[in-house]
């Protein structure tokens, strides 16, 4: 026998959980299944990932509108574990142009926050467990998928069968389910870089400052964490060389690239690396299928916009599904999915172009571009209205 659901979400990490919660709280009669390959116990122990994530101010506001339980929002539950970004320092190695972005100058309490993914994962799963209309199926995978005119049929790895009106892929880049449904992924730009990720400790307290430094090989970001740690995202052409260094020599290389604004770097944790490409699904919808987050697009980590853009996918799709359900429309119909595609197109295009143009500008060593970007940083530093226009998209005010 097939179990009936109104919505099935493939992927039980941040995007998938946020989508399920955003819909469930507004539609308590809506039956939702979340299918996740990894065991929930694994998530609680070590998080969805070894990394931390930056949430823009706009994302904090969106999480505040999703309930954790009857008394608290997701944001209220996350906030005590989040490290606040009050100040962002932007510089170009070897040039005088520096931009200081301050929450106080924008009349904000913060520009964003940094949260450990393990903490986010634990909170989201606790919220899911309190929703009687969400079934979180893990560890579980889809072994067979068929779509008809009116529904999607799924067979799972435990041989159970589900049927739903709408299938959502929230399972990351190059989603295998999306590809089975006819979605193709395009590499819009192979940056020929990899991001080296690690936590580092500095002698000088960060005091809620984040740093973005553009070097000859790529951007280097340091985000504030608790206990005076910093989350390092270092984009380089040859990650193997950095990964092979012992701690002393790695920190010495980092010091040469970053400088001494945080004093001496004293310690570095486990280092991992992953290649950087700008990739996008050829369409965010298909027959009875919608894509959100990295399943729809994967950005370069410059300016930390990946999950923030994905969360806007989630909120938009949740609002459309809720409206459609209240009007008794077919949740997987072409009309409903077309609304999602149309409402997300401008924001997606804007952020893809912004991150791609920033990287292409600051990773280019041609002298005219060096002069132009240094002049641009000086102009941003000198004119407050220009700074506000520059930072507005990265705050998630869209």
TrEMBL record:
Family per similarity comment: Belongs to the UbiH/COQ6 family.
Record's subunit section: Component of the Ubi complex metabolon, which regroups five ubiquinone biosynthesis proteins (UbiE, UbiF, UbiG, UbiH and UbiI) and two accessory factors (UbiK and the lipid-binding protein UbiJ).
Record keywords: FAD, Flavoprotein, Monooxygenase, Oxidoreductase
CC cofactor: FAD
Gene Ontology terms: biological process: ubiquinone biosynthetic process
GO cellular component, one term: ubiquinone biosynthesis complex
Pfam families assigned to the protein according to its UniProt record, in alphabetical order: FAD_binding_3 (PF01494)
All residue ranges annotated as the FAD-binding domain in the record: 6-353
Protein name as it appears in the record: 2-octaprenyl-6-methoxyphenol hydroxylase
Molecular function per GO: 2-octaprenyl-6-methoxyphenol hydroxylase activity; FAD binding
Pathway assigned in UniProt: Cofactor biosynthesis; ubiquinone biosynthesis
NCBIfam families documented for this protein: PRK05732.1, Ubi-OHases, UbiH
